[in-house]
Specification:
Layout: E1 20-23, H1 38-47, E2 52-55, H2 61-73, H3 79-82, E3 86-89, E4 94-99, E5 104-110, H4 115-132, E6 147-149, E7 154-157, H5 165-171, H6 176-188, E8 192-197, E9 201-206, H7 211-222, E10 229-233, H8 243-247, E11 251-254, H9 258-272
Parallel strand pairs: 1-2, 1-10, 10-11
Antiparallel strand pairs: 3-4, 4-5, 6-7, 7-9, 8-9
Length: about 270
């Protein structure tokens, strides 16, 4: 474990010491689908001296590297610090941790979807989006795709991964388009989990494979109790993809942006240093 402190992450001496800081990514640590900004990278690097740091998101492993790991490397993060960074990919249905001997990331577990489920989900998603007029392949960047197999989940990203941030924010700000797609899909696939996340995305997985699944495995892998975790997320309301964490009874801070997260992390570091 990193250094310990006699106080909690929130500064109260009467509460259980927090050992883990867990984070949603988009809109919590960054602007959606962009690398975490330098200030967040520096704050996370410093937090690695005191806490296990656990980003958990619906994104694929490669996006974790681009959005979190590479910006951390620019801060001079050490191998010893990276040992305390845990990547819970695809809502925690995949888990990677750093191996200092190999100077690389190793997969600890993975719960992939059967190929027949991937085909079924992909077919239904595309049909629903086309029927509703929300299939916009003409707006994709070369080589980009709307539906992506992320092994343990299938993700619909209406404008692909490479579209500009402003365009993505404007596409479905009230989630109504994605809610309509989900409603149609659930008629065909009632036994699968559909979660709206990010700015244009829908994550589809087996029932129960949401952030509760990921956080439960986090508890097991890191051998911590729920009251030793502090979670940060922007979609903690009922129906949001962070809400399962709230339902688990894990202490949660709701943020509106990475600026809110930075403010909280500065306060936490002011307590533990």
């Amino acid at each position: 474990m990193p250094k310990t402190t006699s106080q909690t992450a929130t500064g109260s001496k009467n509460q259980v010491i927090k050992r883990v800081l867990a984070f949603d990514i988009d809109q919590t640590l960054n602007i959606a689908k962009t690398p975490i900004p330098p200030e967040i990278a520096e704050l996370l690097r410093d937090c690695l001296d005191y806490f296990e740091i656990c980003p958990i998101s619906g994104q694929k492993f490669e996006q974790f590297l681009v959005q979190i790991v590479e910006p951390l490397k620019t801060t001079g993060v050490s191998d010893q610090q990276l040992e305390h960074l845990h990547l819970f990919v695809a809502q925690g249905t995949q888990y990677y941790r750093y191996d200092p001997a190999q100077h690389d990331w190793q997969q600890v577990y993975n719960y992939p979807l059967p190929e027949e489920d991937v085909v079924k989900i992909t077919t239904v998603l595309e049909k629903a989006a086309r029927d509703l007029g929300y299939w916009e392949a003409d707006k994709l960047a070369p080589g980009d795709e709307i539906i992506e197999n992320r092994l343990s989940q299938v993700t619909f990203s209406a404008l692909g991964q490479s579209a500009g941030t402003e365009i993505k924010y404007a596409w479905d700000p009230d989630c109504k388009k994605r809610e309509a797609i989900v409603e149609k899909c659930q008629v065909e696939l009632p036994d699968f989990l559909f979660e709206i996340g990010g700015t244009t995305s829908i994550n589809v997985a087996k029932a129960g494979m949401n952030k509760e699944f990921g956080m439960t495995h986090l508890l097991e892998e890191l051998q911590v109790e729920k009251n030793q975790i502090l979670y940060f997320g922007d979609m903690t309301q009922p129906g949001g993809n962070d809400y399962p964490v709230v339902q688990m009874g894990i202490d949660t801070i709701t943020v509106r942006s990475h600026e809110d997260t930075a403010f909280a992390l500065r306060g936490i570091l002011g307590v533990v240093r």
